[in-house]
Amino acid sequence: MNxxxxxxxxxxxAEVRAFLADNLPADIAARVADGSPLSHDDTLRWQAILHAxxxxxxxxxxxxxxxxxSVVERHIFAEESALYSAPRLPPFGLNMLGPVVIRYGxxxxxxxxxxxxxxxxxxxxxxxxxPGAGSDLASLRTRAVRFGDDYVVNGQKTWTTYGQYANKIFxxxxxxxxxxxxxxxFLLVDLDTPGVEMRPIRIIDGSVEVNEVFxxxxxxxxxxxxxxxNAGWTIAKYLLTYERTNIAGVGYATKELARLRQxxxxxxxDGRPIADNPAFAARIAELECELEALRVTNLRLLAxxxxxxxxxxxxxxxxxxxxxxxQSLQDLYRxxxxxxxxxxxxxxxxxxxxxxxxxxxxxxxxxxHRKLSIYGGSNEIQRNIVAQHLFQG
Amino acid sequence: MDFRHSEEHQLLADSLRxxxxxxxxxxxxxxxxxxxxxxIPTLWAGLARLGIPGAFVTEAHGGFGGTPADIMVVFEExxxxxxxxxxxxxxxxxxxxxxxxxxxLLEGVIAGSERLALAVNEPQVACxxxxxxxxxxxxxxxxxxxxxxxxxxGAPAATLxxxxxxxxxxxxxxxxxxxxxxxxxxxxxGGTADLVLSGLRAECLAQDARPAIEEALDLGRLALCxxxxxxxxHLMALTKDYxxxxxxxxxxxxxxxxxxxxxxxxxxxxxxxLSITIxxxxxxxxxxxxxxxxxxxxxxxxxxxxxxEEAIQLHxxxxxxxxxxxxxxxxxxxxxxxxxxxxxxxxxxxxxADRQDxxxxx
Lengths: 393, 362
Ligand SMILES: Cc1cc2nc3c(=O)[nH]c(=O)nc-3n(C[C@H](O)[C@H](O)[C@H](O)COP(=O)(O)OP(=O)(O)OC[C@H]3O[C@@H](n4cnc5c(N)ncnc54)[C@H](O)[C@@H]3O)c2cc1C
Description:
The structure holds 2 protein chains of 2 kinds.
Chain A: H1 7-23, H2 26-33, H3 40-53, H4 71-83, H5 91-104, H6 107-118, E1 124-127, E2 143-147, E3 150-158, E4 168-174, E5 184-190, E6 196-202, E7 208-221, E8 225-226, H7 232-243, H8 250-266, E9 268-269, E10 272-273, H9 278-306, H10 314-336, H11 357-360, H12 362-368, H13 379-390
Parallel strand pairs in A: 1-4
Antiparallel strand pairs in A: 2-3, 3-7, 4-5, 5-8, 6-7, 9-10
Helix pairs in contact in A: 1-4, 4-8, 5-6, 5-7, 8-9, 8-10, 9-10, 10-12, 10-13
Chain B: H1 7-23, H2 26-33, H3 41-49, H4 52-55, H5 68-81, H6 87-99, H7 103-111, E1 116-119, E2 135-139, E3 142-146, E4 148-149, E5 160-167, E6 170-177, E7 182-185, E8 191-196, E9 200-206, H8 210-245, E10 247-248, E11 251-252, H9 257-283, H10 289-315, H11 325-335, H12 343-361
Helix pairs in contact in B: 1-5, 5-8, 6-7, 6-8, 8-9, 8-10, 8-11, 9-10, 10-11, 10-12
The structure holds flavin-adenine dinucleotide.
């Protein structure tokens, strides 16, 4: 057994580090490191820097402007990016729609859509979920009816992440009745189409990061269909394999654990650093064990994927444990602050104690991160997937 | 053995529940919960008419109760309604005033014209009063306070703030009328404040009052456990309802065994919180008060947070929205652990007491 990276992979990691050290803007890294909200402009700036280096589309092949990286190289890049506090770019264009267009799109679609994702001209959001179709996505009811060269779309999407920054949405729509999975198509919609309306949804921490999108007789050109009509379910499943890229979030968890330790030493309560409270210290040590195991599980499954032996359930297991671990870390991060976690971010004396801004926001971030086990296929659905595999035959 | 409420307590619980459901619906609550002064005067007046602050005070001082059972009944309803009125601070202050023999100040509390807050925590002190740093000194015949106080729950709406400060080797209690506060909304709604004392002149109520302060804080912890219980009961009902109504894959969520079992664990956690709170209530006036309150607060804090996380998870996306009342209950159930010492603080308190017992025995 050998847990070492190959010499090429080691060299690649050094190259990534050098690049991040030289090119990641210090102000953006500082904001990511201390959990301050990023502006849309921060995201655009980092995207442009990666694009200039040719390192933006890590899951696309070279011929379409991607990196052509192996799964191991992608992992190394994601891990180093997290450790250097690079912003996480929204996945919708780069990791979701891009691979779909490359696999299923027409030449014309490839030529128009892909470059505009890379240069930031288009911002995509994901229109899968509906009020009545969450875990049971195939029951979706937003309908597209063909009239000549157009589809006329009616219905509602919801939970659309960052829809407020997007100009386009890729949707699953119903184009035929019968078996639910068989009547679904994959359709691209301009958000400024008449009859499309976006409304914000305020979430538990008070912020707005999701939206609902209403379609009322919105006319969408048939040319915006990706793949065959009624073949959308296959495409949606293909996309999901990319949605779960870097799903374990080991890099983020490593970074979060280190910050938790640091803060627990820095904050003194009842006469000693929190890190010296035995009940608290035991929880940190337990999470370190979980993280170490997950780190190696992630590498083992990565090696499987590299060798073409990945089972479909690997990413489900990684999502399950990865999100549980990160939610536990957020729980402790909030608890380090004790009573100071109570006031809304930045108010009261906690603001004067020189704490990093992610510490002051710890409670809100904790509530926000409850989403990790709900979206991208809830953790119950991931367990169902693994169970099906475990008990088959 | 009889675990039922007395007839009087049942009446109090019922009338308080009806009153709050009517006078403090969720939308009004959420508007007041995040804006100064985090308090609705008409609601407070209504509570006073029902005799609520009076229920914090013993009959000896003109109140209507003041027993641990009274406190438990009231705060369970507070939790069920997610009421943000400054009742915790008023309870802490009222108990302290009573123990310090300041019945004169309690009349206004009972009548509803006086709202209290207790400034005990400091930026570096959450639970163990040995470490308090704020001081009080007599200068030219009047008392002056120095230091910082934080997490003064309900202070933005309080008419009188009681401050705990060091007087040489003791802990004294001082009164400030509407001092200049740094006020904030809490993540789960309601008001809190910090206070920089910087030489403020204050009235001295007591120069040596540590046992009374500890008792008041323990009563506040019991109240928080009862509040947790009420909020858990309500969120349990919402969750059960949602699982029975929401359909995916053509069937109600409540038909999925994986979810049924999770709901069962929530129900059992609720029973455990009820039991440990009853235990703390029953032992409150005995020699083991501190230990039982610590146990109740530690277990309640842990179970309530887990319960809240499960409730959000079982709702899916809806549980993450501001609009859905359940999300606000979940927030309260998580954040309540941060008040008056969290699960780790109270476990540490138990360990500390064990060590002292061992020392005393040898
Ligand atoms: C912050 C956030 C961002 C999101 N962003 C997007 C986005 O950009 N685009 C998009 O299309 N969607 C998005 N989603 C939607 C997300 O994918 C759904 O919330 C998710 O699929 C769950 O669906 P639901 O919310 O309808 O819950 P439901 O499906 O109603 O589930 C409720 C509960 O029941 C459980 N459950 C359901 N079925 C079963 C079963 N068979 N067995 C056991 N348990 C079951 C679930 O796990 C969950 O715990 C987002 C959601 C959130 C919270």
